[in-house]
Amino acid sequence: MASMDQLYQTLIIEHDRSPRNFRTLEAPTHEGRGRNPLCGDEVSLQLRLDADGRVAEVGFQGRGCAVSKASASMMTGAIQGKTVEEVRELFDAFHALLTGGEADRDRLGKLVAFEGLKTYPMRVKCATMAWHVLKEAVSHES
Amino acid sequence: MDVAGLRAEFPILGATSRGQPLHWLDNASTTQKPRAVLDAVHGFSSSWNANIHRGVYEFSERASLAYDGTRETVARFLGTGDPHEVVFTRGTTESINLVAHGFLAPGATVLVSEMEHHANIVPWQLAGARTVPIPVTDRGELDLEAAARLLADGPALLAVVHVSNALGTINPIAELVRMATAHGVPVLVDGAQAVGHFPVDVAALGCDFYCFSGHKLFGPTGVGVLWARRAHLEAMRPYQGGGDMIDIVGFDRTTFAPVPHRFEAGTPNISGVIGLDAAIRWVMAHDRDAWAAHEEALFADALAAVREIPGLRLLAEPRERVAVLTFTMDGAHPHDIASILDGEGVCIRAGHHCTQPLHRRLDVGASARASFAPYNDASDVAALVRGLRRVQELFG
């Protein structure tokens, strides 16, 4: 299993330095916001679904640790073009990956890199926060 | 001082964490326990465990004497003569809740400070009081001029921390008590972070209430102390109802046991109290001046080394403080700092340290904190500095 130091080197630092889709959208159709009361980290997420119900645009904002920022950044890349149903399936797979469940690894693709975190349960919530916000956001239109 | 000898008294200091030798620098969160404490708790549980104040048999008698005898140990430790002024609680948090419940009239104003732990803010609010804060300066010290003005408004109580858990600041309690007394304001002191670092004399401080926890004093978790002037205890409402706190129970009317038993409903944490007794005796048998000098030297070394790390900022620099190093690093969130250090076996705390108002005041969301105890040594400082340099490499 990768050490935390390796995880930071290979995955987290790069997305922390240059997070993808770190922006606000002009015309979001779905929005969500989450806060981790333990550390005070915050993330807000905006999505625009197209006429076919697929994720056309996504942006996130917030302040938090590198793990939460890298996770949100990778998530925004992974959900591009996906339907709400596919987003939910991806959430389930990611959640299972980090909590020791049966994860659909093919579906996760590059996201499996986060698997190393599951041996650090105190940090798992940092990586899943943006995903919980996403799941909540797609469940109702803004 | 003989640090190696002191370390040898703590079995856990030979443990590994993440496969590395343990470097315990989260002493403000909880301290490790010496063999004297572990043996006392284990000895009671394995050889003479019994409930107190109930049985007439040997073990119960012995447990009762040990439990109530600890009040005398605590009284001696706090520089006071009356063991009846010592109430056992679950810890500092429960001690403060007990006073909030029993001492205050609804709608009272309690003067606190911006550097209080949430445990010295929220209980007052739950009791229906209004909390008004003494401001904290940029150095991380209390603004005493503001305190004087706020005391003149006549709050029902001044509730203030002796040593800040987040910054290590030692507040001038005796001076604050003098100022408060001039306005007839009683003073509660949250001593959770003080008792592990230096001797406390409540008579010299002149305060009305003093609270601390066993586990920040090398003792067990789940046990703590409320010391209060007897006149206050006599006047306070009981906290919880139950066994052992009563005199005569009837369906129309119940009368209560004398203080301090009135405030200890139900079977208490007997093994915890026995462990607390062992911890206090253990502390008092050591040269605390030598401990303080050793901590101070380690802190000075750590401070000098971290000042060389680019982008590392101290959260505050109080003039009077214990060995607590609280900082942020440019580009690295405190939780990431703590995770990198964790990989090196170095345990520090990251977050708001249960002091959200203080962090808002100092305009940071979270910070990282390394806090020292007498059993820390140069290898702990070296591991801390090595880990922080690694953080700087990764995030700088």
Describe what is shown at a glance.
With 142 residues, chain A is α+β, with helices and mostly antiparallel strands. Chain A is built from five helices and three strands, in the order αβββαααα. In chain A, strand 2 (41-49) and strand 3 form a beta hairpin.
Radius of gyration of chain B: 22 Å
- Order of strands, main sheet of chain A, comes to 1-2-3
Percent strand of chain B equals 15-25%
Chains forming the largest contact:
A-B, 20 and 20 residues
Number of strands of chain B: 17
What does the model show?
The complex is a heterodimer of chains A (142) and B (396). Chain A is α+β, with helices and mostly antiparallel strands and 142 residues long. Helices cover 45% and strands 18% of the residues of chain A. The N and C termini of chain A lie far apart (40 Å). By secondary structure, chain B is an alpha/beta fold. In chain B, helix 8 links the parallel strand 8 and strand 9 (209-213). Chain B is built from 14 helices and 17 strands. A seven-stranded mixed beta sheet of chain B has the order 4-10-9-8-7-5-6. In chain B, strands 13-14-17-16 form a four-stranded antiparallel beta sheet, covered by helices on one side. In chain B, helix 11 packs parallel to helix 14 (378-395). The interface between A and B is medium-sized, with 20 and 20 residues.
